[in-house]
Design goal:
- The protein is mainly alpha-helical.
- The longest helix has 24 residues.
- The chain is built from 16 helices and no strands.
- 43% of the residues are buried.
Length: 334
C-alpha cells in the first residue's frame, strides 16, 4: 500500500459521511497517473502554492491601495487568512482539510491589480466582462505554466468558481471557503480600517457588538464557533439566524464606512483609469504582449480576452511600472 493509499484509507475511516473523499473525486480535465505520496487534493494544493499567480498575490491590493505601513493586508495575506479559517472549520467538522486548503489558496488567483477597482475597470471595457472568480478558474485551467494550466481536480475548480456569495459550491468544503472568505475580509478589513484611522471600534453599532463581540478577534471567534456548532453532523454549512443577520449588518456597515468611503477609496478612480489605459494600449499593440499570450492568441482566443488575461494578471507595482514606461516622459540623457 502506498503512502497515498494510506491517506485515502484514513479519510474513509475518519472523515465525516458528508466529506468529499479524495478517492471519489470527479477527476481532472486531463487524466494523470496518481502520485504515490499525495492525494489528489494535496497535489492540487501544492500546484497552487508553487504557481506564479499565487506569488503575485503578495503585491496585489486587498482594500487599501498602496498603504503606508507594513501591517496592512494584501491579497496574499487575505488568502492565507481565508485558508486558516477554512481549515479550522473543516477540521472541527471532520471534512476534507486538504480540499478546503486548495480551494482557499486558489480562490483569488485571478484577481486584478488594485483590488475590486481593477476588476470594475476590466469588466467595464471588456466585451466579455470580467469576474475574478471565473478568471481564477481560467488562470488555473489555461494561463498557468505557459498555457498548459495546472490541471486541477473538478472539486477544487468548482470551489474556486463558486467562492463568492452568489456561488453554489457542490461540496461542503467549497461552502466552507465561501463563508471563510467573507469572514476573513470583514475581520481584517475592519482591523485595517481601525489601524488606518478610518474607523474606531466604538463606531460599530451596539446592536452588532452585542451579538458578535467588540473586537476583531472576538467576532472572528464568534463566526467560526457558530458555523461549527450549527453545521456539525449536517449535510450543509450554515450559520444561526442571529449571527448571520448580525454579519449582514456588519457587512453593510463596512460598505457604508470603508468600502465606499471617499477617504479610503480616493485613489481608486486613478487605478481604474490606469487599468483601462493599459487594456486599450495592448488591444492596439498586440505584438507587445509576452510570447505566452501571443501563443494563446494564435490558438483562436479573442484578443479582448487575452489582453484581459495579461493586464488582469499584473501586480499593482508592475502595472504602475508599465504605465510609467509607456506614458510618463523621462529626463533626456546623453
Amino acid at each position: 500500500m502506498t503512502i497515498r493509499e494510506k491517506f485515502e484509507q484514513y479519510e474513509k475511516e475518519n472523515l465525516s459521511l458528508y466529506a468529499a473523499l479524495s478517492t471519489n473525486s470527479k477527476g481532472r480535465l486531463t487524466e494523470e497517473d496518481p502520485c504515490d505520496i499525495r492525494t489528489v487534493f494535496q497535489r492540487d494544493r501544492d500546484r497552487i502554492i508553487h504557481c506564479k499567480a499565487f506569488r503575485r498575490l503578495k503585491d496585489k491590493t486587498q482594500v487599501f491601495l498602496t498603504p503606508e505601513g507594513d501591517h496592512y493586508r494584501t491579497r496574499l495575506t487575505h488568502t492565507l487568512e481565508v485558508s486558516q479559517n477554512a481549515r479550522t472549520i473543516a477540521k472541527a467538522l471532520r471534512l476534507n482539510e486538504e480540499l478546503v486548503e486548495a480551494i482557499a489558496l486558489g480562490h483569488d488567483l485571478g484577481h486584478t491589480p488594485f483590488g475590486h477597482a481593477g476588476e470594475r475597470a476590466l469588466n467595464r471595457v471588456c466585451p466579455f466582462g470580467f469576474e475574478h472568480s471565473d478568471q481564477s478558474v481560467r488562470t488555473v485551467d489555461r494561463l498557468e505554466k505557459k498555457g498548459k494550466g495546472l490541471n486541477l481536480t473538478y472539486e477544487v475548480r468548482d470551489g474556486i468558481r463558486n467562492h463568492q456569495t452568489t456561488g453554489k459550491p457542490h461540496t461542503l468544503e467549497g461552502k466552507i471557503v465561501r463563508f471563510s472568505d467573507k469572514i476573513a475580509y470583514i475581520h481584517h478589513d475592519m482591523d485595517d480600517a481601525v489601524r488606518g484611522g478610518i474607523l474606531k471600534e466604538s463606531d460599530v453599532p451596539a446592536e452588532i457588538r452585542d451579538v458578535l463581540g467588540s473586537t476583531p478577534g472576538a467576532r472572528l471567534n464568534c463566526f467560526i464557533h457558530d458555523i461549527v456548532t450549527n453545521s456539525m453532523d449536517k449535510d450543509d454549512i450554515i450559520m444561526s439566524e442571529p449571527i448571520a443577520e448580525a454579519m449582514q449588518k456588519l457587512r453593510r456597515f463596512m460598505f457604508d464606512r470603508v468600502y465606499e468611503n471617499p477617504e479610503a477609496k480616493s485613489e481608486e478612480s486613478k487605478a481604474e483609469g490606469l487599468m483601462e489605459t493599459l487594456y486599450f494600449y495592448y488591444l492596439k499593440n498586440l505584438d507587445k504582449l509576452p510570447e505566452e499570450y501571443l501563443n494563446i492568441l494564435s490558438e483562436g482566443e479573442p484578443r479582448e480576452r487575452v489582453v484581459c488575461d495579461y493586464v488582469g494578471a499584473m501586480s499593482d507595482r508592475f502595472a504602475i511600472a508599465v504605465y510609467e514606461e509607456l506614458y510618463i516622459p523621462k529626463s533626456w540623457q546623453i
